[in-house]
Amino acid sequence: MIRYLSLDWINALAAEVASSDQMRTVAESHRIGVTQVVTDGPEGDVTYHLSVGGGEATFGAGVAEPEDVKMEQDWATAVAVATGELNAQEAFIGGRIRLYGDQQRLLESQPVFGVLDAVFATVRDRTIYE
Is the CB of residue 16 less than 8 Å from the CB of residue 123? Predict the structure, then answer.
């Protein structure tokens, strides 16, 4: 088992994103760099990113280059969204997830996040949220 947002978790997702044909396909028609910052977790603050475009997709620790969108949330919110206890849209509306950057690009990139959710599912059953 791997702990949510640990470096092992980030590396497991990076491998899944890199090997996903669906991510490469969606990256042919979409381009976005998203940075996620999660504060107050067991390992302190964690920053990771997803970058797609030009038929390539990468996931990893650190800030997206270029960064089109940045999202910030605390550990409790991140866990609640990841486990399905909280809907991400409700978290945005309620101000629990703060969004910075190009909101239009984020909306246009919804197909990317649909595919990413399927990739996350491959790691979800090996993840513990503590």
Answer: yes
